[in-house]
Amino acid sequence: MKNLFKILYLAPAMFIASCDNGFEEMNVNPNASTEVVPGFLFTRAQLVTVSTNFTGAAYLTIGGSMQHFATYKEVPAAGDKYFSFTYSQGSWNLYGGNPVTEGAVIDIAQVIEAVSENPADINKLSVARIWKAYLFHRLTDLYGDIPYFDAGKALSSQNFTPKYDTQQAIYADLLKELEESVNAFDAAQPTFGTADLVYGGDITKWKKFAYSLMLRLGMRLTEVDAASAETWVKKAIAGGVIITDADIATIAYVDGSITASRNFISSGLMSTDYVSPGGDNVEGGKLAKTLVDHLKTTKDPRLNVISVVWTKASATAPYVADTATALQKGMPNAAFNSLPADFDSYSEPNPNTILKYNAPLLVFTPAEVHLLLAEAGLRGWYAATTPAAEYESAVVSGMKQWAAFGAGGVISDAKIAAYLKANPFKATGTLAEKMEQIGTQKWVALFLEDEYEIWSNWRRTGYPKLTPTNYPGNLTGGKIPTRFVIPDSEEQYNQANFYEARTRQGGTNTLSSTVWWDK
Hints:
Mean pLDDT: 93
Pfam families: SusD-like_2
Largest sheet: 3 strands, antiparallel
Low-confidence stretches: 1-20
Organism: Dyadobacter chenwenxiniae
Keywords: Lipoprotein
Strand order of the largest sheet: 7-6-8
Protein name: SusD/RagB family nutrient-binding outer membrane lipoprotein
Strand content: 5-15%
Radius of gyration: 23 Å
């Protein structure tokens, strides 16, 4: 992969091979573990998978292009003005990079290798394989054809130039891995226990997570292989998916002095834009007009959970985070190239919910699953309930989940009922209208927690309908970005494999390239 792997893994191997007079003992760090500790590495793999490159990828690139956020500046405008592709390259560090905060691919590969040796570790192996599927589905959805079967083998096999596999082949294996993993669980065997930050070793919940991921991936195939999509969607539903709050997949964080213990979303947003109220901020960001206008038009009570405008009673009074609906105003995407005079009047994330360092990360929610079930119902693949019922359950779950962020996130039953009454599911509408309603609801329900999935669903379905920007000099010709850019280092260190994959994907490596399932 990148040159870092050669420095870490190739150079020591060459040194040891050429010196056999006892120097290998001198080349061992006495303060470092010489054995894989599966529980520790699994914890690390979970944390690194969800957090790597959040600011550059989920916030500035996807958050801007999906019109959740806007910026007046040009440098961070990968999603707002379709400028720099640099931010999108950072997610490639899931393969390796900073040895403390990146490299989940290597971590999970080492975990799987370590727990494969003992039959009693079957539950640990199954959970690790499920998490590997979660990790690689994100990577392939961002970049398309990527190293998969050969990935993470720089240490074990000295393979520094892994081949790129087609996304079609990767998806087939991810689905196989999920199915085999859930079938292999054994309630009589040990688990990762507290080293598992998501479910604490609860294999019943991990089965639901795996089947929910299978449902998501199966639905991703609708435009390229409808028959396989139907097969996997039905298999996932039959297996049992996440439909109650008791099974929601979360990672807890604390408001501690150690940055790594804090929620990386709040830390990222606070360090880049929302450090203090009033005045300019680092990346020039605010919530986008498209998002705020939609929430106001539909009278969505999540607006008051998500959004604030900082106000002052007088010039000397302190700023107050005001959630009043009338005050909320989103900043237009790609509308400015310098600080707008009314910058302070635009909405930004609520410090009492989103910006709390101890806010939980919602990894996989009932709201998303209910929306997937609603779509499955529309396609005739699920008849246990109606699409309308699943849509309503998604709305309720999507609003109730904000209570996990504290008192500022609580939405009353009365407000939820009023929203559903004002925005009922279009039971008599066209298929396109129903799909649009489901896609738009997902765009709101997964806001901030899973921008990656919002972007993938938009690329697959075209919903919600977003009007692209066309800022002068942009890199896409006024087209919303549709793929991340693989780093230049691959062209230097893994050139033959990179070129082969690039040719396979249309000969380009740009923000306007597309992945296999995006038709």
